[in-house]
Write a structure and sequence with these properties.
11 helices, seven-stranded parallel sheet, Rossmann fold, alpha/beta, about 15% strand
């Protein structure tokens, strides 16, 4: 069954992102996968977006204010009103409010959460008469934050296009550098990754975007920059897909010393696709992506993380790649969404 599918995202970062942007990257991979399978895909997202199918931009890149959100909602409402029968199904990755114009319509609607959920939003949607609305979350941990609000829920993890990454299985776990790849904000834990590297005398490469938020920029300049010596600890800035493939593939491990309830970072399946294990703090949805002792390690402190670096030779990098293909590939995740779409259409 060929479907006319609308994918919808907040117009803050283009789809796919130029550098950092986890959800925008996933949307691009899902759009490409659906198009390859013959579906008619339309994307409403930020200017500069490009995916297989039709792209209809709205909003202004980087703008996120109360006024811009109201203007964006009005723009989307007008689009839905002009073409009421244009789509067979709407899959929204942006604000739940974007579905307000079609909540009561007999139109299948999927809303994906990649952040902790406010259950009040489910109750509001139900009070507004929402029909044929299904919620998905990128981890069971995120789903559980939304369950108190009611509604039908499924878990569909974030993906990585495994064909874009090279499985490197001959990396020396004792001498290869460690890697930290994320947005450089305190909750991501780069300072802990540095302390682990210094404790062990192991090389650490840091990659990612410095946050524009004043408090986070101060964090980078005061706590991270003084420790970046270009030798033991290197910072290489944002990386594109090709650079990421080399960076992750040549690493002994990806460090994820997160300090918040991380939903499910895209960099985790990307690392596994390269055959690279992850050592992560046991927070949020991250434990759902790591088989302890098989594709990486889970821990709770910097001391434990440092100890586990010494056990990386226990990990079979072939198994990491196999798990990426089986559970987190773009094909596996598009399969999951397609099953959900067909179930909703059948109802």
């Amino acid at each position: 069954m060929t479907l006319r599918i609308l994918l919808l995202m907040d117009p803050v970062i283009p789809v796919p992102p130029r550098h950092y942007g986890g959800i925008e990257r996933v949307i691009a991979d899902v759009a490409a996968g659906l198009s390859r399978r013959g579906h008619d895909v339309t994307l409403w997202a930020a200017p500069g977006s490009h995916v297989p199918g039709l792209v209809e931009p709205f909003g202004h890149e980087g703008e996120w204010t109360r006024w811009s959100n109201a203007r964006n909602l009005a723009t989307l409402a007008a689009r839905f009103w002009r073409r009421p029968g244009r789509f067979d199904l709407v899959h929204n990755f942006g604000r739940l409010a974007y579905l307000a114009p079609v909540l009561r319509r007999d139109l299948p609607k999927v809303h994906t959460y990649m952040r902790p959920v406010n259950p009040r939003n489910m109750r509001i949607a139900r009070a507004l008469g929402a029909t044929r609305l299904r919620y998905t979350a990128v981890s069971a941990a995120i789903r559980d934050t939304g369950l108190p609000g009611g509604g039908d829920w499924s878990v569909v993890y974030n993906c990585a296009p495994v064909d874009r990454y090279t499985a490197r299985t001959d990396v020396d776990a004792a001498t290869a550098p460690l890697v930290f790849l994320s947005r450089l904000e305190r909750c991501k834990g780069a300072h802990t990754a540095i302390s682990v590297a210094r404790r062990l005398g192991r090389r650490l490469t840091i990659a990612g975007t410095v946050s524009p938020l004043p408090a986070e920029r101060e964090y980078f300049e005061r706590e991270l920059a003084p420790q970046i010596d270009g030798s033991l600890v290197r910072y290489i800035g944002p990386v594109d897909d090709a650079q990421k493939d080399v960076l992750l593939g040549s690493a002994a491990a990806l460090l994820l010393p997160i300090e918040w309830e991380e939903p499910f970072p895209v960099v985790l399946p990307e690392a596994l696709a390269c055959g690279t294990p992850a050592i992560a703090f046991r927070r949020g949805g991250v434990p759902e992506g790591i088989e302890h002792g098989k594709t990486g390690f889970l821990c709770d402190t910097a001391e434990e993380m440092a100890d586990l670096v010494g056990q990386l030779d226990r990990i079979d990098r072939h198994r990491c790649r196999d798990e990426a293909e089986r559970r987190f590939s773009d094909g596996a995740i598009v399969d999951a969404y397609e099953r959900l779409y067909r179930e909703m259409m059948a109802r």
